[in-house]
Amino acid sequence: MTRKCFTRIATFTCAVVLIFFPARLVGARGAVQGQQPTYTIPEYNAFQACQTEKDTPGKLSCLDSFTAQFPNSTLMQYVYQLYYQAYFQQKNYQKTILYTDKLAAMDGKVDQGALLQALQVRVQAFSLAFNPQAPDATDQLTKERDAATEGANLLQQFPKPANATMSDADFAAQKKPGLAFFYSATGFADFELKDYPAAVQAFQSALSNKSDDAVSEYRLGLSFLALNPPQSLDGFWALARAIDLKVPQSDDVQKYLRAKILAYEQPNCENLADAQLSELLQLAANAPERPATYSIPAAADLQKIAQASTILTVITDLQAGGDKAKMTWLAICGAEFPEVVGKIIEVQKGDGFADFKVFFGATQEEVQAATTANMDVKVWTAAPPAGSSAGQVTPQPEAVRLQKDDAIRFSGTLASYDPSPFLLHWDQVKVDASIIPQEGEKKERRPVHKTPGM
User: Fold this and answer.
1) What residues make up the domain containing 268?
2) Rounded to the nearest 5°, which phi and psi values hold at 353?
3) Rounded to whole angstroms, how far apart are CA atoms 66 and 389?
4) Residues 277 and 179 grouped into a single domain
5) Which of 151, 184, 344, 349 falls 20 to 30 Å from 106 in CA-CA distance?
6) Same domain, 19 and 154
7) In sequence order, what are the beta bridge partners of 348?
8) Quick one: which H or E segment has residue 202?
9) How many Cβ atoms sit within 10 Å of the Cβ of residue 146?
10) Helix locations, 53-129, DSSP H
11) DSSP three-state, residue 420
12) What residues form DSSP beta bridges with 431?
C-alpha cells in the first residue's frame, strides 16, 4: 500500500457532513443581530448586492469590487465567507483555502460558529486539493494540521447555547462527528509529515468519537506499522477493523494486510497466512481494541521453534493440537529434514509414484509394535508433472521394491498434516538408496533406527 493510495483513500473524509452552529447573519437593517451597525449604508448595500447575487462568477466579481472599495470594512468576515463558499462551489480549492485562512486570521473578530464552518470547509478543500508532490507540501501539511487541531479544540470548547433544550449529554454527542472529522484530518497531516506517534494519537481520538470510521481505522493501522519500531499487531488489528467496516478499496487493503503478515512472520508456507488473515478479520469484527491475548508470532519466534524442532517434537506438538500445534506448524511447514526413519505400514502404488504409509516413533519397541501410520511419504518413481510441488526431484523407480514392514530412511519437506486421524505429509522425498533392496534381492528386514538428533 503506497503513500499515494493512503492519500487517495483519505480524500473520502470530505463526505463527512457536519452540522455546526450557524454564524450570526447580517440583519435586514444593516446590523449584525444584537449589535449596533459599524458600517455605512453604502457598505451594507454593496454587501447585500454580493450576498443576493445568484451567479457564482458574478458573485466573485461583486466581492472583488467590494474589497477594493471597502478594504477595511467591518463586514469583511462575511465577505470572506461568501468568497470561500463561492470558490468551493467552483471547485477552486486553493482559493477556498486562501479565504478560509483569511477569515481565521481575523482572530477575535470572527463569530465562533462562522470560524468552525470555515475550518470545516478548509479541511474538506485540502483533502480534495492536496498534492504530496507539491514543492510546498510540508508547509501545506503543517497549516492543515494546525487548522484541523484548531477546529477540534474550538468545537470541544464550544458552549451549549443558553436557549438550547437538549441535555448536556446530547449536546456533547452532537459534537462527536465533527470532532472525529477534525482529528482524522490532523492525523492525516501528521502521517504525511512522518510524525507517526502524533498520527496514532489523532486517529485514536477520531475513533473515540466515531468508532465506525473505516478510513480512520485504515490510517491508524498504517500509522502503527510506520512507528519505529512498528507496533505490528496493533497495526494488523486496525487494518482488519477497517476491512470489516468496508473501507474504500478494501480488497487492496486486504491484500496489503496479508503481505504485511507474511513479512512479519516469514513462514515457509505462505498459504498459512490465509487462515490467520481469516481469523484476524473475524476477531477484529467484534472488538475495536486488540485483546491482550491475541498474538501473531514474529519471524524470530518461529525461527527459534524451528531450530529446536525434531521429527519427534513436531509430531508430538501437532498431535497436541491448539495453539501449540498452530505455532509449531507455522514454524516447520515447508521445512526440510535431511534424514527421517520409520517403518512402512502400507504401500500404495499410483501413476508415477509410490505412496508409503509410515510410522515414526520415539522408541524401537514402539515402532515395531505399530500398525497405524502417522506419516505419508510420497516417492516419485517417474518424472513428476510440470508445476508439481515435487519440483525437480529425481525419480526413484527402484523405491517400489520397498515393502510393508520394511524400514525406510529418507529426506523430504513437510507439506501438510491431517489433525485427525493424524497423518504428516511429506513432499520432495528422496529415499536413501542404501536401504532399497537390489533387483531380485531378498533383503532381510532391518530394525528401524532413530533419526540422528531426534
Assistant:
1) 3-23+111-284
2) -155, 160
3) 78
4) yes
5) 184
6) yes
7) 355
8) helix 196-209
9) 13
10) 56-69, 76-89, 93-104, 112-129
11) coil
12) 410
Pair 243, 369 in one domain? no
d(CA 249, CA 247): 6
Same domain, 329 and 431: yes
* β-sheet bridge partners, residue 26: 32
Handedness of CA 164, 165, 171, 173 (dihedral sign): negative
Cα–Cα dist 52/50, whole Å: 6
Q: How far is it, in rounded angstroms, from Cα 6 to Cα 426? A: 43
pTM of the model as a whole: 0.82
Residue 328 covered by a domain: yes
Q: Which single residue is written with the C-alpha cell 498474538?
A: 295
Q: Is 362 left (phi over 0), alpha (psi -120 to 50) or beta?
A: alpha
Sequence-distant (6+) residues with CB within 8 A of 427 are 378, 389, 390, 412, 413, 414, 415
Phi, psi of 344 (to 5 degrees): -75, 120
Q: Are 87 and 60 in contact (CB under 8 A)?
A: yes
**Sign of the C-alpha dihedral, residues 36, 42, 47, 51?**
positive
432, 365: one domain: yes
Contacts of 269 (CB under 8 A, 6+ apart): 333, 334
Please report the beta strands in 294-403, taking only residues with DSSP state E, as ranges in sequence order: 336-350, 353-359, 375-380
Q: Which of 254, 284, 314 is the last residue of a domain?
A: 284
Handedness of CA 229, 232, 237, 243 (dihedral sign): positive
The rounded distance, in Å, linking the Cα atoms of 348 and 354 is 6
Q: For residue range 129-165, what is the model confidence (pLDDT) as tens digits?
A: 999 999 999 999 999 999 999 999 999 999 988 888 8
Question: For residues 52 and 133, what is the distance between their CA atoms, to the nearest angstrom?
Answer: 39
pLDDT per residue as tens digits for the range 216-271? 999 999 999 999 999 999 999 999 999 999 999 999 999 999 999 999 999 989 99
The CA-based angle 7-9-15, given to 5 degrees, is 115
Neighbours of 395 (CB within 10 A): 15
Count: domains in the chain: 2
Q: Let me know: does 256 contact 1? Beta carbons within 8 Å.
A: yes
The answer to whether residue 45 is domain-embedded is no
Q: 323 by DSSP, 3-state: which?
A: helix
Query: pLDDT of 363-381, one tens digit each?
Result: 999 999 999 999 999 999 9
